[in-house]
Amino acid sequence: MNTMKPENSPKPGARRQFLLDSARMACGVGMLGLGLGLYAKQTKALPALALRPPGALAEADFLGACIRCGMCVRDCPYNTLELARPETPVAAGTPYFTARHIPCEMCEDIPCIKACPTGALDHGLTDINQAKMGVAVLIDHETCLNFLGLRCDVCYRVCPVIDKAITLEMVPNTRTGRHAMFLPTVHSEQCTGCGKCEKSCVLEEAAIRILPAKLAKGELGKHYRVGWEEKSKAGHSLIDESKIVDLPDRLPEGAVLPGHYDPASGQTEALRGVPGSEAGVIPSHPPGLGGKP
Amino acid sequence: MSAALSKRAGADAVAKKGWWRAHQWLILRRLSQLSILALFLVGPWFGWWLVKGNLAYSYTLGILPLTDPYVALQSMLTGHLPETLGLVGMAIVLAFYFLVGGRVFCSWVCPVNVVTDAAGWLRNRLGIKGGAQLSRNTRYWILGMTLVGSAATGMVLWELVNPVSMLHRGLIFGMGAAWAVVLVVFLFDLFVMSRGWCGRLCPVGAFYSLLGRWRPLRVSASQRAACNDCMDCFAVCPEPQVIRPALKGEGTGIGPVILAPNCTNCGRCIDVCAKDVFRFGGRG
């Protein structure tokens, strides 16, 4: 205590006690705060299979905007949503759903968003087809029945955005050599992540699952340009095709591929398609597909 | 000494005023707590959706929104503003507790109050004394920490562990492990610290006490001259420090109205006083 102290100030002992008490409080409560902060960091890691309602903000924002009232849970007509309990590995009191349990039925009026008293569910989302709750991923090609050559097709049939979010792509079944396989293929731009495909997958464990877009999606480098897209945008090729340098295809000596056209081989383009010529009709197709037998 | 201790607080009042008048505010308070909970429960139990939501935000009969201003404040500190209904609900709740006293939430609404009152009652009956000591100001430090922490972590921080919302949400939406949190609060109050949770730690009560600082509705020791120093009011009061200035302040010129923000307006002192010293009144 210094000499500047006026006569009527509290006793030095009292001030000292006050400072000590404050320091004790700051330390004790600070430790509690540190613990809570670390716990908060843990709970920010949402398990991959726990999905947020439609329109939910990105997870970090959602946990600040959501006040844990459960209004979205109440107004969901299909009991899809539930509030996380303290033992659930989702921040306590926040809404989530598990697609394999009850998927989102994609109501056109989106009652869960309307019920939300905060911006945790984006009230700007009015078209449920624009929702991004996650992305379906056909995660196991080894057990998917369509990949085994069967016509299960269930995930494709139940998709509310059928033929846009999931299409069936026909490819030859090389195992039998004479059948086709219809591979369910997800198009992430159209997929809302409702989870009906995961719910309806007939396997013991679903081969198709909704994952957060962050886990499901790759990302091209920002500088990548896909040539055919640029070509269709510009209406013509972006390069001078006459200056393309083509190197001779390397084939085993003496080997002849029927239907194969190699511009660098010395044969002239005029020979293409001429009966008896080795230059084939469809140069870009690999042998065995589309060429002459 | 042992005879004095074994006599329960309020026995004089029962003898003098009858059982009902010695318990009326307690009974009304329990009725208030239970009926508010019942309003939330008849929806999920019987499908009568009078009230949806929980204490954080509720919507009654499609008209009345009510938002917990403390939860909303934490959310706003993370940089997110509630929608219109959420803000209107917040204004209504702020205005209500500003008038009746913020800690009326604690004594008339909060479900944890029943738990800690039960712990306090059992602690008295079992004659458990002592235990850890903690300043009653701790709650304000915790309140500050949750507000700063919400801004720092971008998360509604106290809702991660808040026993009040865990119990209320648990009863309405499914309990899960929330019962363990509530049990910890009960045992803490029973064995570790007298009136520990509501009286020293809970930042929800701390927030509401600040809100109720200027409440017009207060308990007044208007007949303090009749006080016979039986100490029953101190024994039953969850915040006994608020009583002394009003009850014993005549000599030092302090008025009979309880001014301390942490008075919960529970009215238990009115019940147990055989001399009818206390009554509800205005500021004056």
Distance separating the two termini of chain A: 103 Å
From the alpha carbons, calculate the radius of gyration of chain B and give it in angstroms.
19 Å
Report the count of strand segments of chain B.
Answer: 5
Average predicted confidence as pLDDT of chain B: 90
Structural class of chain A: alpha+beta
Determine the number of helices of chain B (DSSP H or I, runs of at least 4 residues). Answer: 15
Binned, the helix content of chain A reads 10-25%
Q: Tally the helices of chain A: what do you get?
A: 8
Q: CA-to-CA gap between the ends of chain B?
A: 39 Å
Question: How much is the radius of gyration of chain A in Å?
Answer: 31 Å
Please summarize the sheet with the most strands of chain B.
Answer: 3 strands, antiparallel
Protein traits:
heterodimer; A: 293 residues; two-stranded antiparallel sheet; disordered C terminus; B: 284 residues; mainly alpha; 3-stranded antiparallel sheet; globular
Describe it:
The complex is a heterodimer of chains A (293) and B (284). Chain A is of the alpha+beta class and 293 residues long. Chain A has a two-stranded antiparallel sheet with strand order 1-2. In chain A, strands 3-6 form a two-stranded antiparallel ribbon. In chain B, 55% of the residues lie in helices and 6% in strands. Chain B has 15 helices and five strands. Chain B has a three-stranded antiparallel sheet. In chain B, strand 2 and strand 3 form a beta hairpin. Chain B is globular.
List the helices and strands and how they pair.
The complex is a heterodimer of chains A (293) and B (284).
Chain A: H1 12-43, H2 59-65, H3 71-75, E1 82-83, E2 95-96, H4 111-115, E3 135-138, H5 154-158, E4 166-173, E5 179-186, H6 196-200, E6 208-211, H7 213-216, H8 227-234
Antiparallel strand pairs in A: 1-2, 3-6, 4-5
Chain B: H1 2-6, H2 11-17, H3 24-46, E1 51-54, E2 57-60, E3 64-67, H4 69-77, H5 84-100, H6 104-109, H7 111-125, H8 138-153, H9 163-173, H10 178-192, H11 196-201, H12 203-211, E4 218-220, H13 232-236, H14 243-248, H15 268-272, E5 279-281
